[in-house]
């Protein structure tokens, strides 16, 4: 089931695809539970309500169309946020989705425009989402945690226009946080999935840091002790 709160033909048509594919995937994975996906334009991107889990898919390729002048443009910097919740006693799950938009550069003061994703990218994003639902809502131990990278379907030229980007306005844009430079530790990631995994799951990275940091401190202390002898 999908509830659409923003009216736009392109978005509406595209959302039917999201709904159909999400329903199919969840019916296959969790046939005994009922899941719904809704669009929430005012979702607080990084602050899910108590009992809800966050999954963010960064840097997705999408195509925008201006509702005023009909101009089209592509972007490879679109972030998508999902908040997920499962009521186990009722067997009902809910996902809320927010996509950050962009403004048309020809129509000054324009609103953040709606966008469309390719079917292939929707498929990949939903596969990632279902994996995170299994992991976070059902607490399943998943051995292969590699997430799929969304496809960049065409070259996007020019620098990122921060003044037109909703994610930049919210202070959550990957591009404005890191510029065009990928941190060296990420660039060294040997598998393509690792970069997406890092970008996609901040919560896990903080947990990882909590484990790694005490070990590093202990090693440093040992090194100082031995060098003093
Ligand atoms: Zn326009
Ligand atoms: Zn941005």
Secondary-structure map:
Blueprint: E1 2-3, H1 9-29, E2 34-39, E3 53-65, E4 72-87, E5 92-99, E6 115-116, H2 119-136, H3 166-169, H4 174-178, H5 184-187, H6 192-200, H7 202-228
Parallel strand pairs: 1-2, 2-5
Antiparallel strand pairs: 3-4, 3-6, 4-5
Helix pairs in contact: 1-2
So what's the overall shape? Answer: globular
Report the mean per-residue pLDDT as an integer: 81
Query: What compounds are bound to the protein?
Result: zinc ion
Task: Give the amount of beta strand, in percent.
Answer: 15-25%
Number of strands: 6
Q: Output the strand order for the largest sheet.
A: 1-2-5-4-3-6
Class computed from helices, strands and strand pairing: alpha/beta
Unreliable residue runs: 1-10, 179-204
- How much helicity do the residues have? 25-40%
Q: Roughly how many Å apart are the termini?
A: 68 Å
- Listing every helix as H and every strand as E from the N terminus to the C terminus, the arrangement reads EHEEEEEHHHHHH
Q: Tell me the number of structural domains.
A: 1
């Amino acid at each position: 089931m999908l509830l659409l709160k923003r009216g736009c033909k392109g978005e509406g048509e595209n959302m039917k695809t999201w709904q159909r594919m999400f329903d199919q995937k969840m019916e296959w994975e969790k046939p005994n539970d009922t899941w719904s996906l809704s669009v929430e334009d005012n979702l607080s991107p990084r602050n899910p309500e108590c009992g809800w889990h966050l999954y963010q898919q960064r840097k997705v390729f999408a195509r925008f169309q201006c509702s005023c002048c009909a101009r089209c443009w592509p972007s490879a910097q679109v972030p998508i946020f999902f908040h997920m919740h499962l009521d186990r006693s009722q067997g009902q799950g809910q996902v809320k989705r927010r996509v950050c938009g962009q403004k048309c550069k020809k129509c000054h003061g324009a609103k953040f425009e709606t966008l469309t994703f390719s079917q292939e990218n929707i498929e990949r994003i939903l596969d990632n989402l279902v994996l995170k639902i299994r992991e976070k809502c059902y607490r399943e131990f998943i051995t292969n945690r590699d997430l799929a990278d969304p496809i960049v379907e065409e070259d996007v030229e020019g620098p990122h226009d921060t003044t037109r980007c909703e994610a930049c306005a919210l202070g959550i844009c990957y591009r404005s946080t890191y510029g065009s430079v990928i941190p060296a530790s990420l660039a060294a990631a040997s598998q393509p999935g690792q970069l997406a995994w890092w970008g996609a799951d901040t919560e896990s990275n903080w947990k990882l840091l909590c484990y790694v940091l005490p070990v590093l401190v202990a090693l440093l202390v040992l090194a100082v002790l031995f060098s003093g002898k």
